[in-house]
Amino acid sequence: MVRRIASRGAAVVFITHRLREVSEIADRVTILRRGRVVFSDLVHERSNTEITTIMFGDGAQDEAAVGPPRAATGGEALRFESVSLKEGDVRTLDGVDLSVRAGEIVCVTGIREYGPKQLEAVCAGDASPTEGSIVLASRRYSELTPALLRRHGVGFVPNDRYGSAVSAPGRVWESLIVNRRRELHRRGFLCMPAVDAYSRRLLASAGVSAPIHGRVSHLSGGTVQRLIVAREIDYADTLLIISEPFWGLDLGGRNRIVAELDDLRRNGTAVLAFASDVEDVLRIADRAVVFYRGAVSAVIDRSEMSRGSVGAHMLGFGRSS
Questions:
Q1: pTM above the 0.70 mark?
Q2: Hey, which residues does 168 pair with through a beta bridge?
Q3: Does one domain contain both 136 and 268?
C-alpha cells in the first residue's frame, strides 16, 4: 500500500524500528541516534549489516565485544514455560521460554512494546498469562502477584518508578520501609527510632544524602532510582527483578549499580533485568534474551554478545547465533 501511494507521486515518510520494513519499503533511509541525524542515504546503497552498524554506533559488529562467559552458581530461581499473553485479539507474548539461575544476570531486551513490556507486566502481576506457567522457587504458578513475590523474597524495581515504587508526595522514609513495615512495628505502632535507623542504613548503602523526613518529590530522579534499587536489593533473598537499572543516573551512579548487581550475582542471587538500551545490556548481562514481535528471537551468551549481535535481533534482522 505504501509503495502504491508513492507511485501516485505522493511523498511518504515512514517511521519504523523494523529493519526489514526499511529494506522492503523505503527508497531512502534516515537514521536518528540520541535525537540527532547520523546518516541519510539511498537504501540500495547500504546493506542491512551496514545500517545496523550505523544505528548502534561504531563497533556494532565487533565479535565477542563483552568478555568471557560467567558461569551461574546454582539452580533455577525463575522459569517461564511457554508463556503467552493476549491483549484483545493480539498475541503480545508468544510461547516464551526463559530461565534465570542463581548467580547470573539475565537481561531481557528488544523494542519495549515488542515483548519486554508485556513480560515485565507478567512479572509484576499486572498481567496474567493466557497460556503457559511460571516456576518460582521450585513451585509452579499460573500467574505472579506482588504478594507471591514478597513471600518468596523477590526484590522488584518496576519501570514506572513514581507510579508503582514510591509515593512522590510522601516522606522519604515511607517509601524506604515498604518491604519492612511489619518488622519495624512495636506493639502495633511504627517504632520511629528503628525506622530512622533502617532508613539511614539504606541511604548509606545507596551512597546518597537525602533528608529521610523530606518529600520524595524534592529528590532528583537519579536519587530516587538509587534509593529504590537499594531498598529492593536489601529485600532480595533469591531473586531481583529490575527494569531499566540505570534510569536517571549519571556515570557514577551507573557504575555503582553495575557493581551492586555484580555483587548480587557473585553472592548467588539471580537477577532478571529489563533494558532497552544495548549498551546497558552489554554492561551487565551474562545472557541477553532478545525479543521481537512478542517472541524470543535470540538468547545470546556473554562471550558472543556485541552491539551488532543484540541490535540485529532487536530489529528483526537477526543473524544465527
A1: yes
A2: none
A3: yes
Burial (0-12, 13-18, 19+ Cβ within 10 Å), 43: middle
The answer on 226 and 96 residing in a single domain is: yes
Judge contact between 305 and 107, C-beta under 8 A: no
Q: What pLDDT score does 320 carry?
A: 41
User: Which pLDDT score is estimated for 319?
Assistant: 45
Same domain, 39 and 94: no
**Spatial contact of 313 and 301, defined as CB atoms under 8 Å apart:** no
Which amino acid is residue 262, in one-letter code?
A: D
Does the residue 63 lie in any domain?
Answer: no
The span from the CA of 26 to the CA of 14, in Å, is: 8
Domain ranges, residue 298: 76-314
Residues 6+ apart with CB under 8 A from 76: 99, 100, 101, 102, 135, 138
Work out the number of other CB atoms within 10 angstroms of the CB of residue 209: 8
Regarding whether 299 and 239 lie in a shared domain, the answer is yes
| DSSP summary character for residue 72 | -
Query: What pLDDT score does 35 carry?
Result: 75
Residue type, 54: I
Check residue 77 and give its pLDDT. Answer: 96
Label residue 42 exposed, middle or buried (CB < 10 Å: 0-12, 13-18, 19+): exposed
Domain shared by 134 and 28, yes or no: no
CATH number at residue 86: 3.40.50.300
For each successive 10 residues of the chain (321 residues), what is the average pLDDT? 78 74 79 78 74 62 53 86 94 96 96 94 95 96 95 94 91 94 89 95 91 93 94 95 93 92 94 94 95 94 88 72 38
> Collapsing DSSP states into helix, strand and coil, what is residue 177?
coil
- 64 in a domain, yes or no? no
**C-alpha cell read off for 96:** 516464551
Same domain assignment for residues 23 and 157: no
| Pairing of the two strands 295-301 and 287-292 | antiparallel
Same domain? 17 vs 83:
no
Q: How far is 46 from 229, CA to CA, in rounded Å?
A: 42
Task: Say yes or no: 234 and 268 in one domain.
Answer: yes
